């Protein structure tokens, strides 16, 4: 044995693709069907839940529900990528037209699935969610992998004394700042230290670090208060 195993450094799209691969032939069958693409458009725009879009696709193609569900999420991720990214998935005009027709009939506002389909799909909780909720959950899942694959980058945060002091002072605070405002401030302060992460995801490892310090999972230096008195004082924590 001449080397060791290592985690590849993948972005969110490639990571989740690796976890749920789709055969090219299966993907081609889906994308060749304008009704399936209309369902993708409705799902990606938060007009239809994953369950609604999945069942609709399964009724208009020979693909099984699991494949449809996987492809819908795969395409939605790519649709959210910048247009200059070669993986970006555009929604075709024909699919938009089909989506508009379904929207005009308020198709997605009612549950068009029969009871037998309802039971099958609801065994998987995410099927009742819109894309924005699933996208948020995927971000949480990805960050756990990212911290391992990019430990050199994430562990750098543990050496940033001012960042640790800001987190510790917040955890001990006597003011009333909300946690989401605190994390936003941390992101503005040191988000640039996480260049491998998409900007919209950089707050997540900072939130995780704050949680782990608060719970005692991460041990911080004992002299932070002495070195960063003004940060603690701003939180009402004077010596």
Our count of domains comes out at 2
Spatial shape: elongated
Spans where pLDDT lies below 50 across 5 or more residues: none
- What's the quaternary structure here? single chain
**Range of helix content:** 55-70%
Number of helices: 14
Look at the helices and sheets and give the structural class.
mainly alpha
Describe this structure in words.
- The chain is mostly helical and 239 residues long.
- The chain contains 14 helices and no strands.
Please supply descriptive tags for the structure shown above.
mainly alpha, 239 residues, single chain, 0% strand
Topology of this protein?
Elements: H1 12-19, H2 24-31, H3 34-44, H4 50-59, H5 65-79, H6 93-104, H7 115-122, H8 131-149, H9 151-154, H10 161-171, H11 179-190, H12 203-214, H13 224-227, H14 229-234
Summarize this entry quickly:
This protein is mainly α. It contains 14 helices and no strands.
């Amino acid at each position: 044995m001449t080397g060791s195993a290592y985690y590849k450094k993948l972005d969110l799209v490639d990571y989740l693709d690796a976890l749920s691969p789709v055969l090219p032939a299966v993907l081609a069958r889906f994308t060749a069907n304008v009704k399936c693409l209309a369902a993708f458009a409705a799902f990606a725009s938060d007009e239809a839940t994953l369950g609604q879009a999945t069942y609709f696709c399964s009724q208009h193609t020979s693909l099984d529900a699991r494949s449809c569900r996987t492809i819908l999420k795969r395409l939605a991720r790519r649709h959210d990528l910048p247009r200059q990214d070669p993986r970006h998935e555009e929604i075709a005009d024909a699919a938009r037209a089909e989506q508009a027709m379904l929207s005009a009939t308020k198709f997605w506002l009612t549950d068009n699935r029969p009871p037998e389909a309802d039971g099958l799909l609801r065994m998987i909780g995410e099927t009742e969610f819109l894309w924005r909720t699933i996208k948020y959950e995927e971000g949480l899942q990805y960050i756990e992998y990212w911290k391992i694959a990019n430990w050199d980058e994430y562990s750098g945060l543990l050496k940033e004394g001012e960042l640790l002091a800001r987190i510790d002072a917040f955890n001990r605070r006597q003011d009333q700042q909300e946690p989401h405002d605190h994390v936003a401030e941390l992101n503005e302060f040191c988000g640039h230290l996480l260049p491998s992460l998409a900007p919209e995801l950089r707050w997540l490892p900072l939130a995780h670090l704050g949680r782990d310090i608060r719970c005692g999972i991460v041990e911080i230096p004992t002299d932070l208060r002495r070195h960063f008195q003004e940060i603690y004082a701003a939180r009402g924590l004077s010596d």
